[in-house]
Design a protein that fits this description.
GO terms for molecular function: AMP kinase activity; ATP binding; nucleoside diphosphate kinase activity; UMP kinase activity. There is one protein chain. The chain is an alpha/beta fold and 210 residues long. It has one domain: Rossmann fold. The chain is 58% helix and 12% strand. A five-stranded parallel β-sheet has the order 2-3-1-4-5, sandwiched between helices. The chain is globular and about 45 Å long. Bound molecules: BIS(adenosine)-5'-pentaphosphate and magnesium ion.
């Protein structure tokens, strides 16, 4: 049986009232979500929240919630939806207090239900950027990063499991937002700067409202 997840009572009123734009950033493991988000932050000043980074911070904090997460992440599976959503909500509220003008939610949603729950509890995403990269490229990038990242999930066994989770759980997210007309599919095999050029062309279409 899955362990009981500790939930928090989170007041979302300030976040809902702010009505800032929200972008979901999805793509396979190593597709460049974090790399492109850093560049988007530098150009547009949005707040970057990576669900994976939030989970790793929670693990490092030594909290009871964090101790349940390590095994799941090292197996390449998905952490329960409520845990991720609570961490994202808390981080968004902190950023709103500091005057955030919008969010890049990186690595979220990883399953259709995550997107639906986020949008019903918080607000609809403006666009979903999907970084489309072939599996062999993803594996090459992650094995290269493994030399320096220190990430417990950057090893070939876990990388294979992360890829499997992406194909089974996250690929339907892409179809779901495509059918809603909100998906921006970006071929992310090229150079970081070329990919960013495509990102900018798409974000500029909506930036007048950022
Ligand atoms: P997370 O931390 O999100 O990992 P991931 O999705 O596997 O993606 P990465 O962070 O490894 O890669 P990235 O796409 O950010 O690429 P990056 O820019 O770093 O999640 C980890 C785990 O947490 C999950 O497996 C799951 O267990 C859990 N989790 C997270 N979110 C969850 C959620 N919503 N629900 C449930 N569970 C969740 O680039 C990778 C490498 O490639 C770098 O070395 C970079 O320099 C290089 N690179 C980038 N772009 C290029 C390029 N164009 N050309 C060449 N190299 C490039
Ligand atoms: Mg990342």
């Amino acid at each position: 049986m899955a362990p009981t997840v500790e939930r928090k009572n989170i007041d979302l009123a300030p976040l809902k009232a702010a009505k800032v734009p929200i972008f979901f950033i999805v793509g396979g493991p190593g597709s460049g979500k974090g790399t492109q988000c850093d560049k988007i932050v530098a150009k547009y000043g949005l707040t970057h929240l990576s669900s994976g980074d939030l989970l790793r911070d929670e693990v490092k904090s030594g909290s009871p919630r964090g101790s349940q997460l390590t095994a799941i992440m090292e197996s390449g599976a998905l952490v329960p939806l409520e845990v991720v959503l609570d961490l994202v909500k808390e981080a968004m509220l902190k950023a709103i207090e500091k005057g955030s003008k919008g969010f890049l939610i990186d690595g979220y949603p990883r399953e259709v239900a995550q997107g639906q729950q986020f949008e019903s509890e918080i607000q609809e995403a403006k666009l979903v950027l999907f970084f489309d990269v072939a599996e062999d490229t993803l594996v090459k990038r992650l094995l290269h990063r493994a030399q320096t990242s220190g990430r417990a999930d950057d090893n070939i066994d876990t990388i294979k499991k992360r890829l499997h989770t992406f194909v089974t759980s996250t690929a339907p997210v892409v179809d779901y937002y495509e059918s809603k007309g909100k998906l921006v599919r970006i071929n992310a095999e090229g150079s970081v700067d070329d990919i960013f050029g495509v990102v900018v062309a798409n974000l500029d279409k909506v930036t007048s409202k950022i």
